[in-house]
Amino acid sequence: MQQRVRHPDPPSRVPVVVVGAGPAGLTVGNILRAAGVDCLVLETETREFIERRPRAGVIEEWAVRGLERRGLAGNLLERAGRHTACEFRFDGERYRFRYQELTGRHHWVYPQPLLVTDLVREYADVRGGRIRFGVRDVRLHDLDGDRPSVSYRCPESGEREVVACDFVAGCDGARGVTRASLAPGRARVARHDYGIGWLALLAEAPPSADCVLFGCHPDGFAGQMPRSPEVTRYYLQCPPGDDPANWPHERVWAELRRRLGAAGAAPPAEGRLIEKRVLDMHDYVTEPMVSGRLFLAGDAAHLVAPIAAKGLNLALHDAFLLGDALVAWLTGDDDSGLAGYSRACLRRVWDYQEFSQWLSELYHGTAAGDSFRAGTTLARLRRLFTSPAAAAAFAEQYLGTAARY
């Protein structure tokens, strides 16, 4: 049984307060602790909750190497699956896209709850980092001065605790307090709505193929993303704002069989649906990702729809840059990383947003109800398997090697 270190007494001052114990916040915290920099991570949920919360599972190779260089990929490298190809299904046929043969690169599949479990154990139990779970009413103060602070209500006493710091890392997601604390007029938020929904499903069932499947069907997109030999993530295109109750077990599996159906393909294996929710496909980008002494990372700064499986990878990219930049300033008085942080992050953010838009048309164009769009979408799909140049360009963006870190 793993040892769990508890720090009941919060410090009154630390160099960095990290708000949010997701992949971005825990990676920043681990980078700081490895450099001997003290910090405090604040999380509104319990440790058990964040270690079980179902989220993404596809991690790009450059991101895994970044974790490995920082001593954070031990379990991942031992347990994660390697994916070297994906498969498109359209016009009743199967088309295998072997991206490793084109690039020499692959994807890793490692469910985010396992990654978070690894990161929180390394931060709190191994590196002795301070973390408070279950905090309430987090507030940020004096972000434009050189002595900012963060306050929160202690879950045990109900009293408000105040922690002074030099910097705040905002890693608490799209609906977190740090994003809401941006000074009015100091940041521009660009938004995009795809006008579609995805029914996100998690099934206790083995995948029907050894890779990710993309079903581009006239009745809507369907996707299969293997998570483990026993659990599979599925997506079904649906109207935005649809009610999951409109999708009983029988309808879900009938639509998956139809939209993923192709000559010679095994049908999806049915199993109990342990998660069922509707995601409205939209993106946003906050620019710049900095306001005074507040530095945003991950979904607190930008959201990319799960169309291209880029969200977790962007969060890790932000965390690598922010953690390294904070260490450089706090241990070496080098502010160049912090000064260039937002600009460096946004280069990859916008690259991934553009690819997500392009891929959305590939997935959903055949179901748009427009025969012209359907025809051009099928032309794009066929080109991936007839043009080496088109295939190479897609593989580069799909694997995240187009934007360099």
From TrEMBL:
GO terms for molecular function: 4-hydroxybenzoate 3-monooxygenase activity; FAD binding. Its EC number is 1.14.13.2. It comes from the Bacteria. This is p-hydroxybenzoate 3-monooxygenase. InterPro entries: FAD-bd, FAD/NAD-bd_sf, RIFMO-like. It comes from Streptomyces calvus. The lineage of its organism: Bacteria, Bacillati, Actinomycetota, Actinomycetes, Kitasatosporales. Pfam families: FAD_binding_3. Keywords: FAD, Flavoprotein, Oxidoreductase. Residues 14-355 form the FAD-binding domain.
